[in-house]
Structure formats: structure tokens, C-alpha cells
Input
Amino acid sequence: MYKYDNYDQAIVDARVAEFRDQVNRRMAGEITEDQFKPLRLMNGLYLQLHAYMLRVAIPYGTLDSRQMRMLAHIARKYDRDYGHFTTRQNIQYNWIKLEECADLLEELASVEMHAIQTSGNCIRNISSDQYAGAAADEVADPRPWAELLRQWSTFHPEFSYLPRKFKIAVIASPEDRAAMRLHDIGLELVKQDGELGARVFVGGGMGRTPMIAPEINPFVKADDLLSYIEACLRVYNRYGRRDNIYKARIKILVHEIGADEYRRQVAEEFAHVKTLGIDPPLAELERISAFFAAPAFDAADVEPDRSDPDFAVWLDQNVKPHKQAGYAIVNISLKPIGGIPGDASSAQIDVMADLAEKYSFDELRVTHAQNIVLPHVAKRDLYTVWQALREADLANANLDLISDIIACPGLDYCSLANARSIPIAQKIATRFADAERQRDVGELKLKISGCINACGHHHAGHIGILGVDKKGVENYQLTLGGSGAEDVSIGKITGPGFDEDGIVDAVEKAVEKYRELREGDERFVDTYRRVGMDPFKEAIYG
Amino acid sequence: MKLLTGNELGSGAVTWWTGSGWSIHVEDAVDVGEGGESILHAEEGARRVNAPYIIDAIPTPEGPRPAHIKDRVRALGPTVRPDLTLKPADPAAGDWII
Output
């Protein structure tokens, strides 16, 4: 894992001191809320429905046990004993006090963490594949590149006031586990004739205008990558729509001028940027890469004993192959039946930290699906890890099944939301609580957003649900056929919306229609793509 | 009726104008009629409230009920965590929101 150098630590400490002063001035009435709001947002502090909410950055979703324990400590000391892991691989606390926030940030900084650039029109937390460094199908480890982009984008003077927020994802596998093409910039590391480079996709996103990022360049050499990204941002910063917040994202610019024209402008700017010499020297890349060297794998390749049936089910559902023989990737589902997707108590966070320290080379990952990963667990330890997870109510064997629901905080917490998301997730998970039925349905990505901003990624759900406000009453639209994976697609609305119970019934009808129509190993989304919307519409609306 | 609401500056807690001060209980809120704007500016200027705004509400025997669900959620707490609401001992309290 990357470790702060003196410079990293100094800028984070300086930011804490600066924010402490800003908070003191706000409390003393020296600055107004209008003056203070952009300052607190630059430090990840929002004012939500019930209190201040703090979003803490977890760069590319990677943590060590010391940092994870700090997250538990913050939940206990400054919040109400829990945290909410988000679709940006971050964590949010819902009950923060402004007057305690600087102390909180100081404690975070002591473990090389912060909340900088988790809000505002800047480059947000770089996201990546939660299996980075462990996946058998990756061409390179994406984390050094994500870290390089983190350093480049932190306090970047030219890109601190972009037309709108900006999200970048880096993956290195053909299998997309990070919804890469639904980002403002998506990078897929690839090799061409043995040389490392990246496919560059620009102009994806969800929100009120969902778009899949077109490929802007099929291969940018690794040595040129930072200059190329700089050029992509410069064109956006110059021409992005600052006059209309709803048209300010880069996806609108790329769509309006067309991918070809955008590509041409980037190429022109890139030629100029290359004269500036901003690409890091090889020595710096090697310095960063050294932090992500593979752990000292030494476990024998032994298959775990499957005689405990509950363990065997969890093994099949939540444990994925590792590139190193003798090891496996453990997915910890934060989606208990009837629970709140992404929430974990401080005690659960501590348990996961302990397991990472003891059994996963001190590493954890947060996934965009609001789950946690122990990336490097020896197969011989899997049963022990499972027992400890079960003890902490963390052994839900539902990864990628219908109850593994992505849901935004919705109207229960968020001031932007129009409808509640979490109760819908709870009701659907409860409706499909029968484990055998879930497994029979198979992979089904269900995603719920409480407003058009789409933090719950509903556009990318095999089944998506969007909560809207219909004359003051919550109403839910259903979409089918979306995907955030390598088969990326945007879901289509089925028809008129439903009330809270109606949407649960509609989901069940769609799922039962799939079970009736599926052929062979088809997943829900495969059947939908083969037969189209009509049979589902007929089943749902009769 | 119209209510004046906002958040405490330091804690962020939801508060309601009572006619003479602020309360975290919506039951204590009073109708500000057409005079809400001037109270809002005075109270915000004195930092006794943060991000205040005026909402519509309906009078009931139990006290004012905000017209919009968002303000009812604000008034009580998250429907999915009854233990974190202002009425943790009343499991049916959430019915008031819906």
C-alpha cells in the first residue's frame, strides 16, 4: 500500500489546520454560511437532512487495518457507532458535529486519511478494481496508476474549479468491476506488443443524462498517460458548460461536439502539454509502484474442507479465484437480509480490520457495490475467516445476487433525495430472503437511487429503481437491462411507476418472468436482451 | 400554517422556531404566518440557526405536521433506524412520516 511521504503528510496536516481556523471563524460569526459552505464542502462536509455528513476519501478503495480501525473509532467517537460505505468506494458519517470536525480530521490525518476533494467541482476520489493486485485477469496492477492520478489531481490548481465534479476510474482487466465506462474518464490498462498503455474513454456518467463513455483513444502509452489526461481535462475546463449545471458534466460536452471533434481537440492540446514535461520521471513511477509490490505469498495450495454446508455456500458465492495459487479473494457482503446496504457498525468495522491484519496481509478494499474485500486470504484460512465473519453477522452469502443491492442513502438521510431508497432495498431483500431462490435466480444486479442524481447507479442495474416525488408522494420507476460491467448498458424504463409495495411486486414479477423465459445459463440481463422489454412489461402491468 | 426550520450551527441538529427560541421537537413549532422571513434573517444573523427556511405544515391535535415528507423525515429521523429518531421507544412513530 502507498505510504505518505513528508510532503503528503504536510499538506494534509496543513489542510486540517486551515479548516480548524475556518470552522472557528464560522462559529465566531466572522464568515457567513454562504462564505463557509464552499470551504466545508472542499473538506467533504455536507449539511444533510439530520446533521452534517462527512465523506471520507478512501483512495481507490484501499485501506490497511490501522486505517479501518480509525474508521471504527470515528464512528464511535464522533458519530452514532456506524458508517456507510458508498458507491465511490468511500465512507460517509451521517451525524457529525461541525464543532468536532477539525478534531476528527486531525485523527484521520494521523493514519494518512482525509476528506479532501470528496465534494465540489474538482477531481474526486479515483476509483478502481477492488480485486487489483489479486485478480488473475489483470494485465498490470492498476493501483500505482490510480495513486499517480491521486497525487496529480490533489490540489491541482487548474482543476480545482471545473465546470462540474469529475470522476475517474482505472481498471486493468477485461472484466470491468468498477463501472469504468460510466465515469467522466475511464481508463483500461492494456498491453500492445508488450508495451503498457491505456484505452481512454471519456464522457460517461449516470445522473439525469446517463451516457456510456465513447473510446477517445485506443492506446495511450503509459509514459504519456498523465499528459493525455491533462489534455482531456483542459479541453473540458475550457469548453464545459458553466452556464447550466445540468449540462456542465463532460459527457454533455463530448456528446454535443461529438467524440471525433473532442478527440481532435484533445490531440491538439496533448501535443502542447507534451512540451511542458509534466509526465513523472520513471524514478517516481518506480517509487510509487514499489508500494504495491505483491505480498510474500507462501501458503500451500490446499482446497478448503467443504463439509460445513453453510460454509460451502459462502465459498461458492463470495470467494473468488486469486492469481496466486493457495490464495483467494474474500468478499464481505454488507447486505444482510433486511439490513441497510453499505452500513457497518464500529464493531463490524473492527472485526474486518482484525481479519485483514491477521489473514489478508493487512489489506482491505471497499467496492463500488458497497461491500468489503479481503484481497489475499490463504485458502487454508478461509474457514476460520468465515467463522469470524459469521460471528459478526458479516457472512451473508449473497454476492451479486438479488439481495446484494446497491442503494443510495435516499430520503432517509439525503437532502437531495425525492424518495427513500433503503426501505425498498430492505423489502426486496426480504421478499427474496429464501437463499435457494436467490441462488436459482443467479446474478442479478439490483440498484436503487432516491433521485435523478443516480448515486445508487440505477441506470446500470440489471434491474434499476428510481425514486421520484409525485405530488409529494414517493413513487418508484422501474428500469430493466442496465449494466455497469464490461457489457455496459443503460436500463430502459418499463412504464408507469409504483408505490412502495407496488415496486416490490413489480420486481418479483420481472424476476419470475425471467425464470420462466431463461435458456441455459442466461442471467436475468441476458434473457432481457434476448427477448426484449415486452414480455416483462406484460408480466409487470398485465 | 407555516413553520420556520433550520439546523443548529454547531451540532447540525434540526431545529424549529417556537416563537421565542428553537426546539428540536416539531411539536413545539409555531405558525410564523407571513412574518417568517424577518425572523429567519434575524436568527440566522445571530447564528442561532443555520440554513433556515420556511415550510408549509398542517395543524393537528398532536402539533404541526410538515406538509412534505422530506420535512417529516427531518422532524423525526431516519425511518430505517427507529433507534436514532427522536422517539426511539415508539416503534410506530415512523407511521407519522408516511
In short: Chain A touches chain B at residues 26-27, 29, 33, 47, 49-52, 80, 95-99, 340, 411-413, 415, 417, 420, 422-423, 426, 472-474 (CB under 8 Å). Chain A has four domains: 6-109, 134-290, 309-391, 406-541.
